[in-house]
Amino acid sequence: MPVQLLKIIKDQSEIPLPRHLQKEHLKHLQEGYDHTNKYIQGIVVLSYPLTKLGDGTDFFKIVLQDLDDLCSRISSINVLIHGKMAQDCAKVIRHGDTFIVAGFKVVESPTAREDGRHGCHLEVSEEAGSTIYYIDTKPRTTTASEATSIAVAPQYVYTPLNCLKDGTIVNLYGVVKFFKPPYVSKGTDYCSVVTLVDPSNVKLTCTLFNGNLDSLPKIYKIGDIVRFHRIKIRQYNGQMQGITGAGFASLTFDGTVGAPVVPRTSSRAYTFTDEEHKTIEELRVWAARNVSTSGPAVKLSSVQPMLFFDLTCQLVGKAKVDGSSFLLKVWDGTKCPYPSWKVPVEAKDLEGEKVLLRQLRHLSVDILVYDNHVQLATSLKIGSFLRIYSIHAKQASADNEAVSHIEFHLHGGTCYGRGIGILPENNLDVKELKAFLESVDLAGSQNMESMTSVELGGTSGDFTVLTDHQDLNNTELRTIMNSTAPQQYRIRAKLRTYKPQKLHQSVKLHCSKCNSLQEVPDGDDFDFILQDSAITAPNPELQNASWYDSVMWTAQDQKQRKIAIHFVRNDELLQQPEHTLLMIEGGTLKEFWKLTKRFKCVIPVKSTEDDLELLDLSAPFLLQGNVKYYGCKQCSAPRPIKNLRFIAAEEHPSWEPTEIAQVLGIELLQYVFIMKFTLVDGTGAINAYLFDYEKFFQIPASEILTNSFLQEKMQMTMNTLCPPGRKLGDLPWLECFIKSYNVRDATKHQVYYQIFDTTVAEDV
DNA sequence: TTAGGTTTAG
């Protein structure tokens, strides 16, 4: 009997094969060699229906996977079985069975280039003297016809991303780390670029083309999970690249742990087994720990100038502006906190429901899309739900405007995934957005808008400040003044006055260790320290250490100032500027500003005889973006600067100021708002201090000094809480949360009040 | 064919 069923055995080393047979590894298999006493063993991973060849002989093809060598391109091989043996095999052989064949013929595989399997295939038949052994892995209840039907649904093998080889066609799973939503390419197709990662921690960027938008993967978010079938792998610029080829198909899944596992696809038929369901769940768990997603979605109410953001919104109007730009009017139910621009278009050119456009005129925003995005934008349907990726919120001011406004651009090109994605109605984010849009009171928001911010919450009604303790009842100020401290209260009061009136003076630096407060040094202090430190030239012996690369040059000024920049390497390599930490010696204030715009972090240093060290702590020890970070002179105990290596050795150092401060022995000073509010409620008056890093104004204290927009926003908030020029009776009511506390010294005892757990809300 | 991630400069 040429096809034998071996008994089911757990330990495969015990397979009772004839003694003369020796196992041959696929990698040693070559055409023209003697394989007489050899056998090939593998798992059946794919089988095709039994067919008849042109001459009437039966033909059965299976694919064997060598489990000992999963990563090799030649780890799977086609086995072509002819004649009676084909019939016998088709009856009994199933996926997952262990298949052993001896007495085979090795022939060059004509399909190896295409299917990525072994360069040879095995030809097996009774005539050739072949013997097949197999281990049945599952209890067998199927009949021959059922076995055939199983064979029609092939079982796929998925290649981990670290095992991809040039010139193969593979199936794979991946977590989306980056993507460009489909856009119109310069050729005939739509294009989408997708970068995947998987638990092998290898990245693969795939370039996908299709003339049909629907055939490209329906990726909506970083962190989505995809399954690609029949993707071509090629080498490009020294890296593996995926590209669409014949038969490419994809499934996309929400990457959220616990979300329903529902594939998004345009394929009419696809396989999806319990095993694959499990794979998705596992990848979700892995991704949750290992792939950074884009963070919480930005709503229009939280846009900031100079921000690139993704917006999930509904299209309410559109208009052609000129050949290279197109207007989209969208809303998300929230209100942009800044005056936003309106792109002038003729009413007749504006497509959309007139009544709704008018109702939404203060809630919708204009997004001008350019160049390659125009064609897709033109085709969008009014009312559809969109996710627009990498919108630029740009601060701008016109000559005739007192305050600057914010503009929304979707610039040309597709860098950073810039583009427009159309979300289906069944998308979870869309469902949530729809429910929210339906809850928006259009009449109410219209009325609100017709008032100025000063009128908001004026005599007609209460202006409310949100507290975290809505369950508490209000306490009269008189009662509070007559009570002992410490206690906590919710109060309803009016803000009679506040100090400082010049709001920028309210920002201080606070040391949480010694509890000291100090003024924020101004730029001149820093400049002076820099000039002073530039007198000492960089020490040439400290250039290029094991953990940083250095460049040094001489400025073309009278002092022949020497400048050195030390680029800290991460994991032995230099990173992109926006992830890189620099140390600079001899730089001017202006040079620092320029470098902070381009690099993640900048640390001013000076040379000593044997090491680099930080400057005097009157200077910032770290600059990041617009923010200068200072250390407490009293509490810091500077440690060697080479401690930065500990962070640099991390795989993806985030260069958090707190972490940098810690390794450098710096006690980080935090920016805080310190204000004194005089609150009255008709029964009494108290002075309550505001001590706030970010929560109260929803503005980080660290950014207020360098951002005029945030300063304006803060001024507007204070004008709302305490409108200038109003009589006491006309001031708005506020609700907030305060606590009383005792301050005692040798001579006196006083009770103080502090506002906390309170956030200003524009409207409630 | 197209694009091949790493923000426009309106």
Automatic annotation (TrEMBL):
- Top-level taxon of origin: Eukaryota
Subcellular location per UniProt equals: Chromosome, Telomere; Nucleus
The record's annotation in SUPFAM superfamilies points to: Nucleic acid-binding proteins
Show the Gene3D superfamilies listed in the entry: Nucleic acid-binding proteins
InterPro entries per the record?
NA-bd_OB-fold, POT1, POT1_C_insert, POT1PC, Telomer_end-bd_POT1/Cdc13
What SMART domains does UniProt report for this protein, alphabetically?
A: Telo_bind (SM00976)
Q: DNA-binding: is it a keyword of this entry? A: yes
Give the primary localization class.
nucleus
Q: What are the record keywords, sorted? A: Chromosome, DNA-binding, Nucleus, Telomere
Domain called Telomeric single stranded DNA binding POT1/Cdc13: residue spans = 158-288
Q: Which PANTHER family match?
A: PROTECTION OF TELOMERES 1 (PTHR14513), PROTECTION OF TELOMERES PROTEIN 1 (PTHR14513:SF0)
The record's similarity note reads:
Belongs to the telombin family.
Official protein name in the record: Protection of telomeres protein 1
* Organism name: Willisornis vidua
The coding gene here is POT1
